[in-house]
Design a protein that fits this description.
The complex is a heterotrimer.
Chain A: H1 2-20, H2 22-47, H3 58-92, H4 96-99, H5 105-111, H6 119-135, H7 142-168, H8 177-187, H9 199-208, H10 216-222, H11 228-260
Chain B: H1 16-19, E1 24-39, H2 44-52, E2 55-70, E3 74-78, H3 85-93, E4 100-105, H4 115-118, E5 121-125, H5 137-147, H6 152-166, H7 181-193, E6 199-203, H8 211-228, E7 231-235, H9 239-245, E8 248-253, E9 256-262, H10 263-270, E10 273-280, E11 294-298, E12 302-308, H11 312-322, E13 325-331, H12 335-344
Chain C: H1 2-20, H2 22-48, H3 61-78, H4 82-92, H5 95-100, H6 105-135, H7 143-168, H8 178-191, H9 203-210, H10 214-217, H11 219-226, H12 231-266
The chains are: A mainly alpha, B alpha/beta, C mainly alpha.
Chain lengths: 261, 350, 268
């Protein structure tokens, strides 16, 4: 309960901060809309030339695009800004200010700043998914929707854990900031279903870099395009990733406090 | 429009700068700079309201200042944070355009940013670096020489000289980010002087340095001023910087000049007090020092009093008569205190 | 002339800096590989789903491979990031020391740009080679296409650099530039023809693309190098590139004057 209140407080402070940069705020919303328009225009371009993309038709792709945009928004809302701050803190030795706070350090470090305008991405993503669902009402079932929500939660957990491991890497490597670049490079490939890639790449994007769990599988579960094996894999992978990342974080902290003592 | 140098300021002719008829090298007339800053109250509601409509407040950072600085002068520019010191320096280097008023430096209007002007001035900013953080300092030095079009062999000579004077031979091949603050500051000064600027602006050059390093940088600046006859304008928080380097100081607060003149004058005019310190053989035993003057410190066998000048003789007489005095000194109050008085508005401005 | 000594010095320093950061900039450079690769895979899948299952508007999968491979290379040769960088310098106060120098700051940025492109070749050339081996692109390039295409790439780099810097100068007026930067890059990807060759775009979008500089930065040099354009279209394209460069210079001169006035008006 206390932790929920804290998140609320972090969000409030973040709104105030972001609102201070008025032109920026407007511009960010404008960019989100521009991105959104560009993606729709991209879809238009693609489907004015073809009927399907790896077995996904235009409305399927719209749902996938919604998931991609929403995921992008979630990462930008709290994951990437906070993880970036952890890396900066480790480098500058200011992580101590996090550690002396009387709350769980992982929680505090993961949620202390929210980039509020990213909510616009999440909202737009939701609108796209809803529009696709309305159009595909024959294919979308209640069970499919429930599965979709569950898979989405798994996806967010996996990507959060992935970033936490990256950020914790800063305890050992000083230049991990660039790993962020690697991530965005790979994430770009999640804009399309993994089915479009050659089999070897597809396998890697599923089981090595779990990109498929972030976009293809959640969107696929909505329209019955996901195999039961991958549902189980998502659940298992999410649980493992979270536990592993938390352990790694604590391990890193021990090293940090040992080194700075 | 440019002031042609009337006499040589070659470093070889000793004291050349002093023999020159003094020319105005920096001139400010009613120099004014105002900023418009957004106003915002705390709280979520105010933040959201600020998104829609924003209120602005006009801040007068520099409110019509006048001064003239002659060639070869070294002037201390004093004032609390936000007094307008840096804003003034930025106008004189051409980084800021004044809201109104005039200024000339070396006969140029700084904000026209003519190449010929830029090549004869330099600015050291304590908090900002003009060195490339990721490369050895030497690389930045060589680039600086090229950018300022310094002749290769002359540049090399200046560089060797500065490296030796500043004792930074060991830093040249180290990445700038790995240098200590003291080393970095000396490199910073080195790079600023490579093109032998005729006018040097120093903005908090000793900020954060230890006492020994401050003294070293001070000595170097004084030396440069003497050798090259360069005009130096210096801002600093450390009074010692200013008292050691500058015969003339300008005190500024809220964008206005409160005092402009010789340091010695400041003490005379604004501090009609002396500080009297006595060491005693016995205890004070509740002796009513307060009757004699303001008690600045009172110890077991020691006391310090602030006494108006005209009463000094009388007070000394009393002390000697009433107490077992071992030692007695009379001194001017410390500069810090005088400046504090100027800023408090207690002393009458010049 | 001061620039004659300053620019080589800048270039040497930029090369040294880029070499310091070779790891980081390699990652940036690889970004330029990912986007075209994804587009390549996507269009290959789209061909399979198209009505005839063989080509889309004359592009077979191996033509797409050639086109997107070229966008990769041309994209690298023409890249510019000043939209972000200048804003960052202005905001953090690092612009002031640069402005104090008797040489225009744009020259130092240009040196950085060239140094980046040169240093990253070390990692990109092998990657480009591997991609050619894996995707077997169908290049229809003749000598005459090379003769026209190489100047077109150089002019494209000038168009993009000049306009990128022009947009970057908005940072004298706007506090944070990331939004404008994203808009600029997004438009460059789409209207430059990096998501799809312009022929595949709906008519309305192609009209918009014609009014913007981006198609002369990527699409035009790529299709020239592929040998898909008629001699008349190539000539027309080169003239258009020159016109955009000339216009860019005029805008630069005006915007720089106004920008510096603004910068020195509100605080450095």
């Amino acid at each position: 309960m206390r932790y929920l209140r804290l998140i609320g407080l972090f969000a409030k402070v973040s709104v105030q901060n972001d609102a201070a940069y008025r032109a920026d705020f407007a511009a960010h919303v404008a960019v989100t809309l521009l991105n959104f328009a560009a993606e729709l225009v991209g879809l238009w371009t693609i489907f004015s030339n073809t009927g399907s993309l790896g077995g996904w038709n235009a409305w399927h792709m719209l749902a996938l695009l919604g998931v991609f945009r929403g995921m992008y928004g979630i990462i930008g809302l709290f994951i990437s800004p906070n993880m970036r701050r952890i890396m900066d803190d480790v480098r500058q030795g200011t992580l101590d200010f996090v550690l002396i706070k009387p709350v769980n350090a992982q929680f505090y470090a993961s949620f202390r700043g929210l980039v509020v305008w990213r909510l616009a991405d999440i909202l737009l993503g939701a609108v796209l998914v809803a529009a696709a669902c309305a159009r595909l009402s024959a294919e979308v079932t209640v069970a499919g929707l429930a599965l979709f929500v569950a898979m989405l939660a798994c996806g967010v957990t996996i990507i959060y854990s992935f970033w936490l491991v990256l950020a914790t890497g800063a305890f050992w490597l000083t230049r991990v900031t660039n790993m962020e670049m690697v991530f965005w490079n790979v994430f770009e490939a999640g804009r399309y279903p993994v089915e479009i890639y050659p089999p070897a790449v597809r396998w890697m994007l599923t089981y090595v870099v779990p990109l498929a769990f972030l976009t293809t599988f959640p969107a696929g579960s909505l329209i019955g395009k996901v195999e039961p094996f991958n549902v189980a894999a998502a659940a298992g992978f999410a649980a493992l990733a979270l536990a592993g990342a938390s352990w790694f974080w604590r391990f890193g902290l021990r090293r940090y406090s040992g080194a700075s003592a | 429009m440019e002031n042609a140098p009337v006499c040589s300021t070659a470093p070889s002719s000793e004291g050349a700068a002093l023999q020159c008829p003094l020319m105005a090298q920096i001139e400010a007339r009613s120099l004014t700079k105002t900023f418009r800053v957004p106003e915002r109250e705390g709280g979520l509601a105010a933040a959201l309201a600020g998104l829609l409509r924003r209120r602005y407040r006009t801040v007068e950072a520099v409110a019509g200042i006048d001064f003239t600085i002659a060639e070869g002068e070294m002037v201390g520019f004093l004032g609390p944070n936000g007094a307008g010191k840096t804003t003034t320096l930025k106008m004189l280097t051409g980084l800021l355009h004044p809201t109104s008023g005039r200024a000339t430096v070396l006969g140029y209007e700084p904000w026209r940013r003519e190449s010929a002007f830029l090549r004869r001035v330099s600015m050291v900013m304590g908090q900002r670096t003009q060195l490339n953080w990721d490369l050895p300092a030497m690389d930045s030095f060589l680039v600086h020489l090229a950018v300022y079009g310094v002749d290769r062999s002359a540049g090399r000579r200046t560089l060797d000289e500065l490296v030796e004077l500043l004792d930074i031979g060991d830093c040249l091949r180290k990445q700038v980010r790995t240098l200590s603050l003291g080393e970095r500051m000396r490199c910073e000064i080195c790079v600023a002087l490579l093109h032998r600027p005729a006018v040097l602006f120093l903005d908090e050059p000793t900020l954060g340095l230890d006492i020994a390093m401050q003294a070293r940088i001070r000595r170097f600046v004084a030396d440069y001023n003497r050798r090259e006859g360069a005009t130096v304008m210096l801002t600093s928080h450390y009074m010692a910087d200013v008292t050691a380097l500058c015969r003339r100081i300008i005190v500024i607060d809220h964008g206005r000049i409160l005092f402009d003149g010789a340091l010695a004058d400041l003490a005379r005019r604004l501090a009609p007090f002396k500080v009297v310190t006595v060491d005693l053989a016995g205890d004070l035993d509740g002796y009513a020092l307060e009757r004699l003057g303001a008690v600045l410190a009172r110890g077991f066998r020691k006391a310090t009093l602030r006494v108006p000048k005209e009463r000094v003789a009388e007070v000394i007489g009393r002390l000697l008569a009433d107490l077992p005095v071992l030692d007695l000194t009379v001194a001017d109050p410390p500069v810090e205190e005088i400046i504090a008085q100027v800023l408090d508005g207690r002393g009458a401005p010049a | 002339m001061l620039l004659r000594s300053a620019f080589p010095a800048f270039l040497r320093m930029s090369l040294a800096t880029m070499f310091q950061y070779r790891g980081e900039i390699a990652l940036w450079a690889i970004w330029g590989v990912v986007y075209p690769s994804v587009a390549m895979a996507m269009w290959a899948a789209a061909v399979a789903g198209s009505p005839d299952g063989q080509t889309i508007r004359g592009f077979a999968p191996r033509d797409f491979a050639a086109y997107f491979w070229l966008t990769m290379v041309v994209g690298h040769a023409t890249t510019a990031w000043d939209v972000y960088e200048l804003g960052y310098f202005v905001q953090t106060g690092q612009f002031s020391p640069r402005l104090l120098r008797p040489v225009l700051p744009v020259w130092q940025s240009l040196a950085d740009n060239l140094a980046y492109k040169l240093v990253t070749l070390a990692i990109l050339v092998p990657i480009w080679a591997v991609i050619v081996l894996l995707t077997r692109p169908a290049f229809g390039t003749r000598t005459v296409d090379l003769a026209a295409g190489l100047p077109a790439v150089l002019l494209a780099a000038a168009v993009n650099y000049g306009w990128c810097y022009n947009v970057a100068m908005l940072s004298f007026w706007v506090t944070r530039m990331d939004a404008i930067g994203q808009g600029w890059f997004g438009a460059g990807l789409f209207f430059g023809g990096r998501l799809a060759p312009l022929a595949l775009m709906p008519e309305a979008l192609r009209k918009i693309a014609s009014a913007l500089p981006f198609k002369w930065v990527t699409w035009f040099p790529c299709e020239t190098l592929m040998g898909r354009l008629s001699p008349a279209a190539v000539t027309q394209g080169l003239i258009n590139q020159l016109a955009w460069i000339a216009l860019g210079l005029v805008v630069f001169r005006i915007a720089w004057r106004l920008g510096i006035r603004r910068y020195s008006g509100v605080g450095a």
